[in-house]
Input
Amino acid sequence: MPGLAHFVILGAALFCIGTFGALARRNAVVVLMSIELMLNGLNITFVAFNRYLAPTFGLSASPWAGQVFALFIIAVAAAEAALGLAIIIAIYRLRHTVQVDQIDLMRG
Output
């Protein structure tokens, strides 16, 4: 049966892969997908810590705190994806590219 360390390693691996993708890639869609990977890594870590540590804190700790944090992160990630894709579509229509280093909207 997997323990807390397995889930923390999985969450850290997802977060590191997402960080690498966000910093190393030039395509804006890939950057957004990498940010989603980072948020999913955080979700796994929150739920794992809640599952393994909440019973040791007694009655004062909520057994649903990790899941509630994960739901909020999922809601924020959905809003971020929708808004990010809308911005990328608008930039593509204006500049005909989604390469992050070629988007120079602040120049005249």
